[in-house]
Amino acid sequence: MKFKLEHTSKTSKARAGTLTTDHGEIQTPVFMPVGTLGNVKAMTNRDLEESDANIILGNTYHLNLRPGMPLMEKAGGLHQFMNYHKNILTDSGGFQVFSLAALAKITDEGVKLRSHLDGSKWFFTPEFVIDVQRQIGSDIMMVLDECAPYPCTEEYAKKAVERTTKWAKRSMEHFKKTKPLYGHDQTMFAIVQGSTYKNLREQSCKELVELDFEGYAIGGVSVGEPPEHIPEISDLCTNFLPENKPRYLMGVGTPKDILNCISAGIDMFDCVMPTRNARNGTVFTRKGKIIIKGAKVKEDFEPIDKECGCYTCRNHSRAYVRHLFNAGEKLSGQLATIHNIYFYLWLTKEARKAIFNNRFEEFKEEILQYY
Amino acid sequence: MKFKLEHTSKTSKARAGTLTTDHGEIQTPVFMPVGTLGNVKAMTNRDLEESDANIILGNTYHLNLRPGMPLMEKAGGLHQFMNYHKNILTDSGGFQVFSLAALAKITDEGVKLRSHLDGSKWFFTPEFVIDVQRQIGSDIMMVLDECAPYPCTEEYAKKAVERTTKWAKRSMEHFKKTKPLYGHDQTMFAIVQGSTYKNLREQSCKELVELDFEGYAIGGVSVGEPPEHIPEISDLCTNFLPENKPRYLMGVGTPKDILNCISAGIDMFDCVMPTRNARNGTVFTRKGKIIIKGAKVKEDFEPIDKECGCYTCRNHSRAYVRHLFNAGEKLSGQLATIHNIYFYLWLTKEARKAIFNNRFEEFKEEILQYY
Questions:
Q1: A122 membership: H or E segment, kind and range
Q2: CB-based contact (8 Å) between A49 and chain B?
Q3: Residues B332, B244: one domain?
């Protein structure tokens, strides 16, 4: 992987860059649609292609259970299995350990957990999740981390930081000892922890930077903390992360969060919000959110967003999409998903343009008046 | 509407024709995907376009409830509302009266019924369903008929035939008195009833032919009778229906039913089978049905049907589609629906070619060995 920092805003830490892997270029800032189980929910690859997404997420924990790694290897990895030939980043499963905590037991060695599906036992170690990600063949792998819940004591958060650093070291060693399986290169990012404790975030950044990863993620946000912490933590961490490496804020977020964290120097984002909200009948536009299944748009024959170029906005009215939701037709979620993903990609592409034009803060304000 | 009979098979009653409306040509035999509520479930218009469908169904009973006719008129009719500009045929609601019988009371005047959604009261008369279909703006409207259940006594079936004829007369009168609302022409087909009684089917055909409709449907099949009745009834009715008018067999069926009824001289078919089965994990191929969510195809990296040109078969393996079903991902139903509708359209297009080449019966046998 190569990362080239191309431009930094004069009025904030907002930056534009290009990340290059064997599956092509990713221009940052970038939003990465979530494709947990080997598909972005309700989207075909063609829909994804048209959204201009150049990278999507997969999830190590979930893919390890379904379809499972024997099948994944036979398929030739996730790119082949999905027939998706752009970039894939896989989360390590660290967040699933957090979100399925009742089923997990964490020790220094790793995480003993039971499948949420069938109760089968798994032992997730830093080494194991790399092995699985080798089998998946993701372009960007993530280390196993310990994601502390919110709120948590400083003592707890400190232990999680220290364990995350130890695991990152083991990860780097194992990464160097193992090889990609499918002929394309793979890289690996570390994950910064530290909850809302500034000293711990600083410590985590410094320890991980020491290990010289090709990219750094900020984890342990979007776990229930007040939303104002998100740009604060991002702003703090990017002070301690190298300029010349990509920074990925995990699981974030709303259009507002994304724009504010671009100002804080973040390059990469992922979140289930656009896809999940779409299926639940909320869509994002240049002029704010709309409850597209609501009675307000019943007789509104305008597209969801007049300025949007997505398939849904080119072809259908709010009233039609609302009718489909109201009638329980699955196409409603498909059309809303196509729009929301297109919008999120538009948002980060416009942010990038604005950064190059030294007007990112203005662009942000234009959007944020509606969010 | 114009119908041109272009070729009749030398070895059966199979025939090829072209039906022309203001929304374009429909080459017969043809399968018409079911789009009850203003969309073919889980399919975008683009997916429909690629399946080569030139006509889809809508449903008067359902559309009258949702989105309702005030909105339908404001939208400029169903073609505009859906942004679908090929042909639409609407069923009259007669079949919903049958399938929701506990909520309906039939008299000579019409059908008093309660909405299955909110209990609201409606009075479906032959005149009312035409008014609604004028509001929908379907290219082909259907008369209100009385669909007898199976089994039913000859006496019951005879009364239903007589009522259906009376209603057809009223329909014709009302049709002539009313006008299309959206600038394109509309036609109306009558519906033959008579259950499994040959004499009653003959009576129904003769009475309706007398009224000189532009097309004739055969209703009251696929209501629980043994499947061998379907081609028998079709074969009988087409003996009494005019050669130069299209014949539509309502709610049928399996690939086997469709091919056998093409032999019996039927031109048009509709059925929820390809879409419903798709969502439930069964797909149709040139070599028979496959349970695509089943364990048998777990490691099968071939497309659903190697010879199929649909988006799903061009891009994805059985193993991938099976994984999506297994993981409960909605994309599974989307991909399977795209394939099944494409397959059904392929089937009737190939049937048409075979009719022109005087080898329809051979083509039918090639397919039926697997069905």
A1: strand A121-124
A2: no
A3: no
